[in-house]
Amino acid sequence: MAQAVGKRVLPGFGLSVGYTLVYLSLIVLIPLSAVFISAASMQWNEFWQVVSSPQVVSSYRVSFLTSLLAALINSLFGLLIAWSLVRYNFFGKRLVDALIDLPFALPTAVAGITLSALYAKNGWIGSLFAPFGIKIAFTPLGILIALIFIGLPFVVRTIQPVLQELSLEFEEAAATLGATRWQAFSRVVLPALLPAMLTGFALAFARAVGEYGSVIFIAGNVPMVSEITPLLIITRLEQFDVAGATAIATVMLVVSFSLLLIINGLQHWAGSRKRYLTGGDFA
Amino acid sequence: MSGMVGGIQAYRGSEVYELSPATREPQWARLTILGLSLLFFAIFLLMPLLAVFVEALRKGWEVYWQAITNPDTGAAIRLTLLAAAIAIPLNVVFGVAAAWCISKFEFRGKQLLITLIDLPFSVSPVVAGLVYVLVFGAHGWLGEWLSEHNIKIIFAVPGIVLATIFVTFPFVARELIPLMQAQGTDAEEAAVSLGASGWQTFWRVTLPSIKWGLLYGVILCNARAMGEFGAVSVVSGHLRGQTTTLPLHVEILYNEYQFAAAFAVASLLALLALVTLGIKLFIEWRSA
Amino acid sequence: MSIQVKNINKRFSTFQALDDISLDFPTGKLVALLGPSGCGKTTLLRIIAGLETADSGQILLEGVDTSNLHVRERQIGFMFQHYALFQHMTVFENVAFGLRVKPKNERPAEVAIHQRVTELLELVQLGSLAKRYPSQLSGGQRQRIALARALAVNPRVLLLDEPFGALDAKVRKELRRWLRQLHDELHITSIFVTHDQEEALEVADEIVLMNKGKVEQIGSPLEVFRHPATPFAFNFLGTANRFEGKWVSDGVQVSNELLPLPPTQSAHANLVVGGEVIAFARPHDLQIETNVEASQGVRAKISRILAFGPTARVELSHATQAETYYEVDVPTLIVASLNLQEGQAVRLRPSQLQVFSAG
Prior knowledge:
The structure holds 3 protein chains of 3 kinds.
Chain A: H1 13-40, H2 44-51, H3 54-87, H4 93-99, H5 102-105, H6 108-119, H7 126-129, H8 140-165, H9 169-176, H10 181-210, H11 213-219, H12 229-238, H13 242-277
Chain B: H1 15-19, H2 27-56, H3 60-69, H4 71-104, H5 110-122, H6 125-136, H7 143-148, H8 157-168, H9 171-183, H10 186-193, H11 198-227, H12 230-236, H13 246-255, H14 259-287
Chain C: E1 3-12, E2 15-25, E3 30-34, H1 41-49, E4 56-61, E5 64-65, E6 76-79, H2 91-100, H3 110-123, H4 139-151, E7 157-161, H5 169-186, E8 189-194, H6 197-203, E9 206-211, E10 214-219, H7 221-226, H8 231-236, E11 241-248, E12 251-254, E13 257-260, E14 276-281, E15 286-289, E16 298-306, E17 311-318, E18 325-331, H9 332-338, E19 345-350, E20 354-357
C-alpha cells in the first residue's frame, strides 16, 4: 500500500512506514480481524440466533435510543456552552473551558460510581426527583445521564473552534440586510455550524454506543429494560460463551465502522467549508 | 497559530462580538444562554467532580487513608503504573514513526492509513478486550500453544498491558500528525542539505519543534492508560491484588459495598484527571 | 439621500480611532474615504452603517439622527471587504436574503422576489449564475453578487469597505470602471473605503483624505491631487520629492543651497522668513540643470536612469547627503539631448513647489 510517489530528500521513509504498518497490524488489525474470522466460522443460523435473540435486540434498542437521545441533548447544550465560551466573558470562564474536557480525563469507572451516587434516590440530585416518584439511577434514564456526561466534550470541542473562527462579517451582512438577530443566527450561523454540529453529534453518538464503564454502575442492568449491548458481550464471556460474545461484537464492530465512515465524511465536508467561512482570501 | 486540532489555538477575545450591534444578543437572550450553559455545566461536570471527593471523605480521613494505603490498593497502583509505563513508550515510538512517514512523505493509501490509526477510538472498549481473548484466550488462535508453553496472557498482566496499548494506540499519533503536517518539510530539508544525518535531523530539528504536541499526546495517552476500564475488565479476570488495576479495584470495592473506600481510590484517579487537565492548560499556555 | 457626520469620536482603549470627525456627504455622489491603514476610515464607515457605535457625535441620514436606529433598521447597503456571501445559499438566495427576512407584512410575494432578484442579477450582468454557490464563483463575480445583494433591499445609501481589496490587479481595474458606470446609472449616495490613492482618484466624485483619526483634506480628485493641503496629503497622493530647510524670501534654503520658488508661483502668506519649512515637488515638477556651477538648485548625483517609455525616470541622490534620494521624470528625448549619464553631477530646480511651514 505504501508506494513511493516522486523522489524523496528526507531519510527514514522505509523504516517509519514499515514500523507503522507492522505495529498497526500486530496491535490493531490482526486482533480486530479475529472477530470477523471467528464470526465467519460460526453457522449462519447460530450467528443469527444470537444477534436476533430478544434480549440482544432489546439491548440494541436501549443502547441506540439512549445514545441517540444523549447525543441530541449534547448537541443542543454543547452548542450553548460553545457559544458562551466563544462569545461571552464571564467569571470563571477559563475554569469552565478547562473542565469541559473532564470526561476525557476522568476514568469511566469513576464517572460511573459517582453518577450513580449522585442520582441514587438518596443522592444529591436523585433525592430531588425521588419525591415525585422519578427514579433515575438503575433505569434507562441513568444510562442517559452517563452518556450525556461522556459525550459532552465531543460536541463542545468540535463546535467551539469553528464558531471561534467564523467570520463576524456573515452576521453583520445579515444585519445590514435587515435580518433580526434570530434570523441571522438561524439562517446564517447555524447552517455554517451544521457540519461541525453533525460531526460532534456523530462522535458523541459513536462513543455512547460503545461506552461501558460509566454506564454499568448506574444502569441497573435489568434484562430487556436497561441492559446495554457491550454488557451482553461481557455476560456471554463470563458464561464462557465466546462464540455468542463474538457474534454480538461483530454487530457492534459493523456499526462502529459505519459510524467511522460517516464521521470521516462529515469531517471532510466540514474541512472543505472551513477556509471559506473564516473569511480568508479565497479569490 | 498552531495546527493542533482541537487542542492548542490562539483565540480572539469575546470583546469583538460586543462592538457591533449585529453580533450582540439582547441582554435577556445572553443571560438565558449563559445561564443554561452554566447550569448544564454545573450539573453534568462540576457536581460529579465534587461528589467524588465528598463521597471519598464521607467517613473521615482515617477510612480514606486506610483505603488508599491498603496493600491491594498498592498492588493496583503498581499494576496501573506498569501498564502505563509499557504502553506509553511503545505508543510514542509508534506515534512518531507514523507521523514522520505521514507528514514528511507522499504515498498512496495515506488517507486510509490515517483512518486505520484512528480505529481503536471507534471500537467499544469491551470489543477491544474481546479481540485479545479471541487471539490469546484458552480457545483462541494461540491458546493451545500458549498453554503448552505455560504462558498466560489472558487473565494475567500481559493481557492487561495489551488491552491498554490497544485503547491508547492513536493518542500520540493523532496529536503529532496534524502538527507535523502543518510544519511541512522545509526545516528538515534544510538540515539534510546542510549535511545532517537522518537521526541528527530528527533529534535536533524535528523533535524540538514537536515537543509540546508530543507531551500533549503523552498526557492524554497516560490518562486513558491509567483510567481504562472496559477493555481491561474483559482480560483481567479480577484477581484481587494480582490482575486489578486502579479502576478495576474501584469496581471491586464498590461491588462489595465499601463505598467510602471505592470513592477514596476513585479520588486518586480524579486527581490524576485534574493533573492531566492542568498540564493540558499549561501546554496550551506555553505554546499559544 | 444625504449623510451628515457630526463630531464623531471613537476610542479603542488607548487608541483614538476617530477624533471629532464632521463631514457632509452630498446626495447622489460617490465619495472615497482614503487613507493609510489604521487611519479610522473603516471605523467611520462601520459607524455610519450602525455596525459600531461612536463614543460621541451623531450620524444624520436625510437630516434624521440615527443614534437609536439599529443597523437592520437603517436601510443601508453594505458591501464587506471579503463580500461575506452566505456560502450555503445559491447566488439567487443570497440576493433574495434581504427580501426574505422582511417582516411578514412587508415581505414581497414569491413572484415579486423572483422578479426583483432576476432584475438585479441582470443589472450586475450575472443572470446566468443564479443557481451557483459562492464557492463556484470568481472573485470579481462574488463582488458583483455582493453588490446585487446589498441593492436588493433598496438601500438609501451604499457603503463599500475596500471593494477591490480582495481582487487581483487586472480584475480590479475592470471592476473599478464597472462600479463607476453602475453608480452613474443608479445615483445612490455611496461611500467607499480604500487605501489605494489611484483607486480613489479614478473612481470617486469626491475624496475625503484621512490620517490618524482626522480629516486631512476634502475635495474633488483633481483638487486633492493638484493642491494637497498638507504635507501628509502631498506625500500620500503620489510620489513626492521632499526638501527640508529654511524659508527665505525667494525660495527654500536647503543646507547651503537655494531651492528657488518658480517665478510663476507666489509665496504662501503664512510663511515666515527664517522659519523651518518642508517643501515638496512631484517628479515631473523638477528640472535637471546640467550646469553644476549655476547659483541655484539642489546639487545631486544621478544614480540611475530608467528610460523605457517616452518618459524616463531619473533617480538621484543628494551630492553630500547620500541617504537623501530624489526622483525626476524627464521626457526621454531630453535625457538624450542633455546627454545625462549615470554618476553625473547636476542641480535640481522645481517648476512647481509646494511649501509648508514645519511645525
